[in-house]
């Protein structure tokens, strides 16, 4: 069974880059027909898609995050990583990684990791 687990720094300072890692077990991030995604849920709001990486290594991003986000992978470790730049306190959130068979069709989620940006 595939499992995903997020990890990150927890507390970060404004304007500093944030790097979050999703560790995958039970499947390969290079396996065909899957996308590896990052999503967040602002407090009191709905889910917000950030972007994803496909199994060939090509990244796709939400328009609202495109200018300050990058997603990359390390196939040897079976990890994929979200980097979010120029963060502000409004970026305080729980961030999730997920596997999808197609765009928007998430089937397996991590438990999430909290990022708190202090002013």
Topology:
Layout: E1 3-7, E2 11-12, E3 18-25, E4 35-41, E5 48-54, E6 59-61, E7 69-74, E8 79-84, E9 93-100, E10 106-109, E11 113-117
Parallel strand pairs: 2-11
Antiparallel strand pairs: 1-3, 3-8, 4-5, 4-9, 5-6, 7-8, 9-10, 9-11
Short overview:
The chain is mainly β. It has strands spanning 3-7, 11-12, 18-25, 35-41, 48-54, 59-61, 69-74, 79-84, 93-100, 106-109, 113-117.
Describe this structure in words.
By secondary structure, this protein is an all-beta fold. 0% of the residues lie in helices and 51% in strands. The strands form two sheets. Strands 2, 4, 5, 6, 9, 10 and 11 form a seven-stranded mixed beta sheet that branches. Strands 1-3-8-7 form a four-stranded antiparallel beta sheet, with no helix packed on it. The mean pLDDT is 93.
- Sheet with the most strands? 7 strands, mixed
**Intertermini distance:** 40 Å
Bulk shape: globular
Radius of gyration: 13 Å
In DSSP terms (H or I, runs of 4 or more residues), the helix count works out at 0
Give unreliable regions as ranges: none
H/E element string? EEEEEEEEEEE
